[in-house]
Amino acid sequence: MKFVQIQEALGDARLQNAIYSATARMAEGRRIRVAEMPDEFQELRQRAHDIKQHTLDHIDEYLEELERNVVARGGHVIWANTGKEASDFIVDLARQRGVNLIVKSKSMTSEEIHLNDALESNGIETVETDLGEYIIQLAHEKPYHIIAPALHKTIGQVTEILQAPADSTAEQLTALARAKLREKFLQAGIGITGANFLIADSGAVVVVENEGNARLSSSAPRIHIALAGFEKVIPRAQDLEVFLRVLARSATGQKLSVYTSFLAGPRREGEPDGPDEFYLVLLDNGRSRVLADRNKRHSLACIRCGACLNHCPVYRKIGGYSYPWVYSGPIGKILTPHFIDAPWLPFASSLCGACAEVCPVKIDIPKILLELREEAPKSRAEKLAMRMFAWVMTHPRIYEKFSWVRRMKKLPAAGPLKAWLEQRDLPDLPQRSFREQWRDRR
Ligand code: SF4
What we know:
six-stranded parallel beta sheet, binds iron/sulfur cluster, 11% strand, 22 helices, 442 residues
């Protein structure tokens, strides 16, 4: 973990309040919606889980079907093995078409591959059009939460970032950003969106949002590029009903998001709007590794609702910038070790299980965390210590011989335990063990 960021987050009362109140609001919204349909919601979760599991188990077939249908509708599919391949394709296309302004709607996949940096370093202006992302971009920061990128900003900070009058209201700030972004939509040559779902049997890209900026990004510019991890594919349009109902409820406590756009290829003859060209960039960037591991494959079922972050006692204390990669919270802990060198990340969890209880696609995050812990490289000393610990704990008579440890009251923060104990406050050790008390009673 990023210890400096953790210390800063823990020591910043304003930030703690911002994280707590925003995540609590979203969690409460979810609670209310689920309470309206408790049994049905659990059934929907199970169906969402089953559809995702089935799709991941047959993903090669569904991706081929998706490609056939995108091409049949006049679109192009680009398979990108790495983030660089995806960025290079987009940069080259912009150059070939003489585009020097791109509008983007919110996409964590584009954050994952640092797409903005690649475009900007090639002289292509790139403007985020989701309000939270726009604020974060102007502040030169990264998203703090997968669905609420500017969750950590106060209205005062946003006023400063947007260079608005000091007494601006939230509505005035929104109107100001809206006016600036309108011009960009009209000038941009390419619009980039992410994708919440890719429908194999129709070749449609489904984008779910609340602001309408994704709809504008995909229809106002001449060229639309949808960038998505290949795991976003689902078999049929009928499956969407399940996901749309659990996604909005789990994310923000809405019954349905405000806009659900079905984007299928370029504008056809007779259609009043839409792009002239459409490209779907399907990104691997390490996903095949996760897919190949049957036990952890279901990590790819994530629909990025953010509910696990909102309910995670660790995320709610340390915030989004304490994690080493773009995906934070519980889902970040099971995805990140497959993508960057962070085998220690799964250990940063209390394993309370709140994430698994709320996940709309029933990803068993604690189980995957334990598997990742098991696989994490360990030093010989650590392995030996764990073996000894296991031996002592499974031999009651030997265990009792260590009762002197309790008389120390506190473990000494020295030797090999020093670094570990510096980060933790352990409770005082009890003077009499359970076994001793049990014996006395009998
Ligand atoms: S792991 Fe589950 S709860 Fe967390 S963001 Fe993904 S879908 Fe939502």
